[in-house]
């Protein structure tokens, strides 16, 4: 799309960008969050411990979020399209090469770096682009785009389990590699240049990250990440330990994905009526309640209830975190700021799954990840309650074209 034909904010073109963001989230997180389905097959083939497999997942997620400040900054300057295209190539190369390795260490380089890099190159750049395209319907648009995470998890988890039983995990990696690359290239193609009003205002990211609001949101995300990632890694194995089949265990991850869409869209839709911060904090409360259900779980049905509740809470947190950040700091330099904010999830993944895996190996009991998640969700809620939105920047007037509303000019 040429600059001259750019139709502006909240236009039909803007909703195409929302679709692109949805596709990017669908592919990258769908593949990433079905890791628990691959845990046992890969561990058995390479004869590695739960702690080692958890470390592999931590590498994927840590790269996803620690590289995000860099990819977000590059996307702020050059636009999301080339960054997402690079992510497509990383995904394809990583998954396809991983399907052919015969050393567990090489999985860190292929599966870990490839998938983690793809998430970093796709999620923040594409979601930030959605924020740039909207004024009136930004919260709704962000919720729709981020709901791709839940839909991707819903599809990828049971699909992975079914394909693994029929073809083995290596073939599934190849299928995901080729199919994911094609979809991410489509995502990149649809990420049009956003509207530009006036000159770009330089965002003072260094100042923003030192504010009380940023620190509290960062810490709350960190603890919620510990709870969420411990669930994604160990929930299928826990279900198998109480007698559920592999497909049934994968179904639990799918339930999380499905209900997370409700959290992303439903809780976000209630924000205008009840307040963004109130619904954001409610998401953390639902996450905590879900772990109370898991602690009392003794059957597969109880695990389904946990998965549904946990998905709603996790979905609300994921959907409203960018909106809370945008409300607090404005949208100038939002890509870089979100990249830094979401490193909290990267740190969480370096802590939650490995600690849970060590405890499982030590005590031979899959209940330990539940204890870790429950404790972390209590702390996450505490810091979310303490969080307040402090507008660090004046609201941008629609009648003042000299002040930019989007992140700034993107060049393709």
What's the helix count?
16
CATH-assigned fold name: Growth Hormone, Chain: A
Biggest pleated-sheet summary: none
- The averaged pLDDT comes out at 84
Count of domain modules? 1
Approximate helicity band: over 70%
CATH superfamily: MFS general substrate transporter like domains
What coarse outline follows from CA principal-axis ratios? globular
Structural class determined from secondary elements: mainly alpha
Percentage of β-strand residues: under 5%
| Residue windows where pLDDT falls under 50 for at least 5 positions | 1-5, 391-412
Rg for CA atoms: 20 Å
- Termini, distance in Å? 10 Å
Oligomer state equals single chain
Please name the CATH architecture. Up-down Bundle
* Order of helix and strand elements from N to C terminus: HHHHHHHHHHHHHHHH
Number of strands: 0
CATH class reads Mainly Alpha
Characterise the protein shown here.
With 412 residues, the protein is mainly α. The chain has one domain: Growth Hormone, Chain: A, CATH 1.20.1250.20. The protein has 16 helices and no strands. Helix 7 (138-167) packs antiparallel against helix 8 (169-190) and helix 10 runs antiparallel to helix 11.
Question: Summary?
Answer:
With 412 residues, the chain is an all-alpha fold.
Give the key terms.
412 residues, mainly alpha, Growth Hormone, Chain: A, 78% helix, globular, disordered C terminus
């Amino acid at each position: 799309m040429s600059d001259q034909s750019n139709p502006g904010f909240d236009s039909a073109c803007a909703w195409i960008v929302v679709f692109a963001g949805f596709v990017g989230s669908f592919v990258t997180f769908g593949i990433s969050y079905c890791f628990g389905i691959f845990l046992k097959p890969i561990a058995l083939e390479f004869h590695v411990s739960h702690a080692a497999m958890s470390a592999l997942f931590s590498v994927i997620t840590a790269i996803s979020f620690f590289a995000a400040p860099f990819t977000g900054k590059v996307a702020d300057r050059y636009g999301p399209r080339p960054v997402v295209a690079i992510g497509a190539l990383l995904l394809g190369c990583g998954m396809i090469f991983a399907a052919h390795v015969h050393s567990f260490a090489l999985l860190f380089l292929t599966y870990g770096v490839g998938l983690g890099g793809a998430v970093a190159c796709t999620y923040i750049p594409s979601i930030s682009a959605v924020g740039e395209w909207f004024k009136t319907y930004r919260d709704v648009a962000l919720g729709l785009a981020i709901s791709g995470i839940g839909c991707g998890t819903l599809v990828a988890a049971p699909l992975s389990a079914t394909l693994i039983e029929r073809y083995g995990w290596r073939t599934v990696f190849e299928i995901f590699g080729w199919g994911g690359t094609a979809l991410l290239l489509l995502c990149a193609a649809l990420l049009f240049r956003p509207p530009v009003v006036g000159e770009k205002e330089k965002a003072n990211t260094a100042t923003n990250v030192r504010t009380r609001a940023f620190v509290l949101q960062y810490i709350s995300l960190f603890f919620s990440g510990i709870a969420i990632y411990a669930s994604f890694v160990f929930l299928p194995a826990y279900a198998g330990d109480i007698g559920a089949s592999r497909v049934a265990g994968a179904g639990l991850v799918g339930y999380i994905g499905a209900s997370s869409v409700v959290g992303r869209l439903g809780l976000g839709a209630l924000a205008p009526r009840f307040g963004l911060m109130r619904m954001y904090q409610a998401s953390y409360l639902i996450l905590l309640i879900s772990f109370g259900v898991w602690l009392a779980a003794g059957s597969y049905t109880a695990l389904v209830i946990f998965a549904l509740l946990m998905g709603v809470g996790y979905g609300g947190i994921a959907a409203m975190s960018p909106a809370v950040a945008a409300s607090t700091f404005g949208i100038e330099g939002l890509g870089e700021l979100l990249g830094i904010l979401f490193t909290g999830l990267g740190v969480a993944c370096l802590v939650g799954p490995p600690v849970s895996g060590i405890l499982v190996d030590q005590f031979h009991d899959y209940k330990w990840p539940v204890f870790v998640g429950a404790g972390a969700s209590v702390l996450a809620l505490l810091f979310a309650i303490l969080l307040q939105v402090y507008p660090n920047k004046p609201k941008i007037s629609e009648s003042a074209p000299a002040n930019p509303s989007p992140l700034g000019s993107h060049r393709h």
